[in-house]
Design goal:
The structure is a single chain. The protein is globular. Helix 4 packs across helix 5 and helix 17 packs across helix 18. It is an alpha/beta fold. The C terminus is likely disordered. The strands form 3 sheets. A 7-stranded mixed beta sheet has the order 11-10-12-9-13-14-15.
């Protein structure tokens, strides 16, 4: 049978005719052209009934966006409402109301007085949000002693210039309310010269078991139920939800930009979402889940070069040993190019091999304990998840393609550096790992293999820029920390979507940026984060969307385990007085970190 060549090409290439625009395609592209632009100001308005996970989504979004370099702030209308109602109740001597607590009757549409108050506080919250978006004021949303919230000016700038994202956290349950938000944010008269995008994120939950769990969490934590018994609080919450359901209208306007999240990320529907939203925020929303699984971070083990006393450790992220700490780098390894090559190819030394054995025992104990806890609650999940790198499947039946049974579930990601890969080549058992180039150390370009002292001596002008702005100063021919954070976004999304334990073996610069995310601390200050050698940093999700941290030292030094409550609302890591680990006075750039052993708070000198 003879096949015409032109017809054959159709099946492999399609039409080779030059694409041309028509009136139809231009009409179809008109909306996309508007939406694809990245607005300097973006409003994400949450939509959903109470106890649908809206505040969980808000907190996760705020942490992720701030870490990725976009200034983000939550404006929770419920908080404004409690502050307003507390003042009103104080004047009228209402007991529970003095704390801002509102029962279900407050949310009845027939309660005209309460409805007027809700509208008023929503307007105040929205006005505060727009002022913050415009950079006119900074709203301090941690102050509960007044109404409306206090404001103060701020000169802090994010890594993306003036880009700001505001999260309007409320039920926003009617079309009328959502149209009002659109008009207030996008009106040409009101917002002249201040273009602002608006995206609605609706959280839908119809899973009864998940709803019950959400109700339990809400009544145990929300100020609205303070002083009530559990049964009374649940009954009041269900009554409140019923009153909202009577007037609830789902998001269905096809002309609006919106994202619908079903049962906390089991399904996502998007409409008119392009640009930054589609590249970053939608994948993040798909990744977040309410499961609990530990994430372990650690540096690659000590190499043979470390033990010889290499002082640069530009790529091996290790300090000099006492044997040769007084020697000049050139006396040990010669010129910069030779050192650079040796560091990239370095394998584990004796200390690194001992750490590898300790790491194997540690992750085995943690992973087996993880599976026991799940078995105790009669939960047998399919842990085979993810879009690229996966959580490993069930503890009893997980096998590799060649038929070898895996000992326990653990997803392992490493840099592609030989020392990192060798750190997870356990003698005790086999677990597959994936080398990820995004986890490679900060690329110092022309200065790779050089000590900071050498750079200061040979390039004092450039070094002074590094001292002034270590986060945004790019190494010639290499990266800055902002670049490093950009390439780690996909790693964060990969880790967040896992339902089994995760181990990441990388290097100081990378771990500093990752730790800033899990601690919800300012990423632009991550260069000052200490990353102890041969120490596991374990992060476990908290119900509120934050992470709990413990540190476990596996080297020859005395064992240390530091507990930290790192709920977003409870920790201020920029204040050393509230931190239970010691920080160096000067930043630690790149992989030039000392052999640091975390110091318990009791041993930290007060400032």
């Amino acid at each position: 049978m003879v096949v015409d060549e032109a017809n054959s090409n159709y099946y492999t290439k399609g039409s080779e005719e030059i694409a041309t625009e028509t009136a139809l395609t231009l009409r179809k592209l008109e909306k996309r052209n508007k939406l694809t632009r990245n607005s300097k100001r973006l409003v994400i308005a949450l939509v959903g009934l109470p106890a649908r996970g809206k505040s969980f989504v808000s907190r996760k979004l705020e942490t992720f966006l701030n870490w990725s370099g976009v200034k983000c702030r939550i404006f929770n209308v419920g908080k404004y409402r409690r502050q307003a109602y507390a003042l009103i109740s104080k004047e009228s001597n209402r007991d529970r109301g003095q704390a801002g607590s509102c029962d279900a009757n407050f949310f009845d549409a027939k309660n005209k007085e309460a409805a007027a108050l809700r509208e008023r506080v929503a307007k105040i919250a929205l006005d505060d949000m727009l002022k913050w978006l415009d950079g006119d004021t900074e709203t301090d949303d941690d102050d509960d002693d007044g109404f409306p919230n206090k404001r103060h000016h701020s000169s802090q700038h994010s890594g993306n210039g003036n880009d700001r994202v505001a999260i309007f956290d409320a039920t926003n349950s009617t079309k009328e309310r959502r149209q009002w938000i659109l008009e207030q944010c996008t009106s040409p008269e009101r917002r002249a010269g201040k273009p602002t995008g608006v995206v609605f994120v609706e959280s839908i939950c119809d899973d009864e078991e998940l709803l019950h769990q959400n109700y339990t969490f809400k009544v145990n934590n929300s100020p609205d139920f303070k002083g009530m018994s559990f049964d009374a609080a649940i009954a009041d919450l269900k009554t409140r939800v019923h009153k909202y359901e009577q007037q609830y209208e789902p998001v269905d306007d096809e002309n609006q930009s919106y994202i619908k999240i079903f049962n906390l990320s089991s399904k996502i529907l998007v409409n008119h979402i392009y640009g930054r939203m589609s590249k970053t925020i939608v994948p993040a929303l798909m990744a977040w889940n309410v499961g609990t699984r530990p994430v372990f971070l650690c540096r690659a083990g000590k190499t043979s070069i470390d033990q010889l006393g290499d002082s640069s450790s530009s790529s091996s992220d290790s300090p000099p040993s006492t044997d040769t700490e007084d020697a000049e780098p050139s006396e040990v390894f010669g010129h910069t190019g030779s050192r650079r090559k040796l560091m990239k190819q370095a394998l584990l030394g004796d200390a690194g091999l001992r750490f590898r054995n300790s790491l194997a025992n540690f992750v085995e104990g943690e992973a087996r304990a993880f599976m026991r806890r799940r078995e105790e609650i009669a939960y047998q999940p399919n842990l085979n998840t993810g879009t690229s790198r996966t959580g490993l499947s069930s503890y009893q039946n997980d096998v590799e393609a060649d038929g070898d049974e895996l000992p326990f579930p653990l997803s392992i990601l490493t840099s592609t550096m030989p020392r990192a890969v060798e750190t997870v080549m356990f003698d005790k058992f086999y677990l597959p790992s994936e080398g990820v180039s995004n986890l490679n150390p900060l690329d110092k370009g022309d200065f790779a293999g050089m000590e900071l002292e050498e750079i200061a001596d040979t390039n004092p002008k450039w070094y002074s820029k590094l001292e002034k702005n270590p986060y945004l100063t790019r190494f010639p021919g290499g990266e800055c920390y902002r670049d490093l954070t950009n390439r780690l976004e996909s790693v964060i999304i990969e880790v967040e979507q896992q339902v089994a334990p995760v181990l990441i073996v990388s290097h100081v610069s990378v771990l500093q940026a990752l730790i800033a995310y899990f601690r919800n601390s300012p990423v632009e200050s991550c260069m000052s984060i200490e990353v102890p050698m041969h120490t596991i940093m374990k992060f476990t999700p908290s119900r509120g969307g934050g992470w709990m941290e413990t540190q476990h030292h596996l080297g020859e030094e005395e064992h240390i385990a530091l507990n930290k409550n790192l709920e977003n609302e409870m920790t201020v890591l920029t204040d050393r007085r509230n931190s239970d680990y010691s920080m160096k006075a000067t930043p630690i750039w790149g992989d030039h970190a000392p052999n640091f052993v975390a110091t318990p708070q009791s041993e930290v000198q007060s400032n």
